[in-house]
Amino acid sequence: MGIHDRDYARPSGGRGVFGRGMRQRKKMAVTTWLIIICVAVYMIDPFFNGFLSKWMYMSTDHAIWGIQYWRLIGFQFLHANMQHLLFNMIGLYFFGPLVEQYLGGKRYLAFYLLCGIFGAVLYLILNLGGYVFGDDIPGLLFNDTATPLVGASAGVFGILLAGAFLAPNIRVLLFFFIPMKLSTLAYSLVALALFTVLFGRNNAGGEAAHLGGAAAGWYFIRNPHHLNGFFDFLGKADPTSKHFAWRERESTQADIDRILDKIHNKGLQSLSSKEKKILHDASKKRREDS
Q1: Mean per-residue pLDDT, 219-241
Q2: Phi, psi of 16 (to 5 degrees)
Q3: Are 111 and 18 a contacting pair, CB within 8 Å?
């Protein structure tokens, strides 16, 4: 699966929007860090006799009976084999930057981790339902509650659904040679995951996590303000977020309109020092832009 024609990477005024965003960043992109961490965990875990895998993998037993909630995040950085790791990192590499550029670094990290958590939660619900109700209800997971869940796939599915919302007509290559729109790829993979879960096919548990991640990605990309409260210790404003910048400009214009109405109704002398500063800064910026 690979990008064939990424519209957001096309040149605009001599530079691609995506390329320009990367040049402006002084810090390494969150997507790059996620890839580095996943690869590093996979590479170093054998030297610790699988300690990281034992400590971070997710299962119904550990999360429900053991109350080991750190595994809801830890499992996202583990992978079963090289092929599992490779496909997830390819998805992150090609589609992560599009979503990160839209949300900004901090909100993108929250988005990615929440998609993974929602994937794990759906897996837990279906697996616990299968344990309680048995095999009479289609869609429940009947595998052992000690079965481990690992992988970044839930987060990647969330990114795919977000990408399908932001740039649905971008052309991608499924398996590097089958061209299709990103939206077609994303929703086809979701349909396949749903079919696998409902009919109990191989890896139904993993596909359940994919569905949870996809649902979270679908929701949060349409409601990014729900991501604002995460990682506030890094600063509440995220200058890397185009969406945040747009909302900031919108708010400033609303303030200016309110101040102008106040001047019209009550006169210039009615303005507070803060309102005068807002008006002065806006006027100065308009002169600089003209």
Answers
A1: 71
A2: -75, 150
A3: no
| Nearby residues of 189 by Cβ (< 8 Å), 6 or more positions away | 157, 160, 210
User: No. of H helices and E strands in the chain?
Assistant: 12, 5
Q: Please list, in sequence order, all residues whose beta carbon lies within 8 angstroms of the beta carbon of residue 205, skipping any fewer than 6 positions away.
A: 123, 126, 127, 141, 143, 147, 149
- The domain limits of the chain are 2-234, 242-289
Look up the CATH architecture of domain 2-234: Up-down Bundle (1.20)
Query: How far, in Å, CA of 236 to CA of 256, rounded?
Result: 23
Contact 197, 207 (CB under 8 A): yes
pLDDT at 66: 83
Q: Which pLDDT value is given to residue 67?
A: 86
The values of phi and psi at residue 172, to 5°, are -125, 165
Span 77-132, pLDDT tens digits:
999 999 999 999 999 999 999 999 999 888 999 999 999 999 999 999 898 888 77
Contact 108, 33 (CB under 8 A): no
pTM over 0.85: no
